[in-house]
Sequence to fold (569 residues):
Amino acid sequence: MDRRQFFTCSTSGMALLFITGATAVGALVRFLYPGVYDEPPQRLKIGYPGDFAFGPTFLAEEKIYVFRDDTKGFSAASAVCPHLGCTVQYVGNDRQFSCPCHGSVFDATGKALYGPASRPLEWLEVTLAKDGQLQVDGGRKVPDSYSLRVQASS
Amino acid sequence: MIKEIYRSVFRGDPVSTDKGKTELVFYNLWLHIHPAKVRKEHLKLHHTWYLGFIAFYLLVILCVTGVALMFYYHPHTTVAYKDMKDLTYVVFLGQFLRNMHRWAAHGMIIVVFLHLCRVFFTASYKTPRQFNWVIGVFLFLLTMGLSFTGYLLPWDQLAYWAITVGTNIASYVPIVGSEVRLLLLGGHIIGDQALLRFYVLHVLLLPGLLIALTMVHLWRVHKDGGLSRPLWKLDGGADATREIAMPAGQEKTYGLMQIITGKPIFEMLTPAEEADTVFSYPYAFYREGVAFLLTMASVMAISLFWNAPLEALANPAKTPNPAKAPWYFLGLQEVVSYSAIIGGVIVPALLVMALLAIPYIDRNPSRRLKDRRLIITAFTLLVIANIVLIIIGTYFRGEGWSWVWPWMDRAGGGH
Ligand code: HEM
Ligand code: FES
Fold:
């Protein structure tokens, strides 16, 4: 084996080793992404419009605040704090949301007033399902002016 | 007969002879991490404070009690909390073992940190021990990682919200952050997948890594020429420079003496220094045994009188107010309460990088305290700042993370 052969051999050997290694690492990382997410659906039916009182209703399981306003209709805000994910509480007297974890406070439109949260609370799309129930889609963000007006049956 | 069996297990001469004492160490897989003879000065409490050993003993206690807990614990959200209740109320010794595991884990964080400080203040990270310091920093990070993953397992309110906040911090890391969180949780929410992943990390991957690295760490102590000389010996001429391994010779590619730079203690010592050494058996082993017994007794005593906390079942709908991270992260949480990216990403990243770089940045060859004023001041200030922030986070933060005086009637309460 001469010098040239030796170098070709060892470079291709290294290249092969590198490719194999990189593929293995890539495959391993890919493996760690679950094939299915065993998680509740983002779009939820939350009940008939008439079931909601005027003002805020907190849906604990879903971490959603639903607001019913007699002129504007229905709107829904995610109660997940945009800072680090604690559940915010709506304080009716102040018309503010406050977060127990690091003290972020948001106004009624979700805008961060003070505290570490830099982003506003998220507003979620509310639609009417075929069966007449309200439906909130956690995956669809809407501006804070969004609301759904329904001809209330009750 | 009994003597014959004993001789088949321990093959050296009787330990009443010097040869036997040496062979006891040399022929034993576990003991030969020690040299056969050690300097008297290294046995002194006020050089090492035995902190490295205590950290190791706590690790042993954690492994044993951890395996015991595994017999009763299922990593599933529907039963994990019930398993904790069973351990508390129905399993014989369950509460006690859980207490031991919990308190030893807290203790290990404190002790590993104190050990790091000891190594820093005695400047033992300097040549030739730079890399062992780096290994040490990783041991420290792994210890924190173990505490963090263990925190979720009881599936109570404390667990759920500490991990919610902790993993959301990861999403602030630019570019890879949210992917890291997704992989860590195995999904977008903290549910069964997350519990299972944390469990695997906590009982297998992280301890495996920690044990493997600890072995390298101890091996390196030996190979770097044994422990550093205590500071009070420096004025006798034993300076850092004296400990640098022999340079390789020119005429031969290598010789055994050049590979074994660990200074076999018999050959490298002057007769005067030799007189300053003792056999590891019994002097070192005896002291290490005492340190072990004291560690064990302390953990058991604490576990008799204080129970590991267990709050209400995890409830994603209701955040406890205030929601606090584990105490050792409260310094960071305090900063996080001003800005998530600074407290959660920038400050910890800078701290870890600074720790890793210390032995390479600090090129000052002297180990004497008076020659190291600047770096000692900087390090001490950082340590004090962290302790103050942890105290503030623990005692002075109430509802909505607002400032409270601990002696006033306190709503919420902290941990
Ligand atoms: C799991 C955690 C750890 C264990 C079990 C451990 C164990 C030990 C032991 C048994 C010793 C021998 C002497 C002594 O007791 O001080 C030692 C020495 C040493 N450790 Fe650690 N250690 C750990 C973490 C660390 C950390 C976090 C650092 C620093 C970042 C570190 C750096 C060192 C260095 C440089 C030495 C040599 C000290 C000298 O020669 O004086 N170790 N370690
Ligand atoms: S999670 Fe709401 S302020 Fe930090």
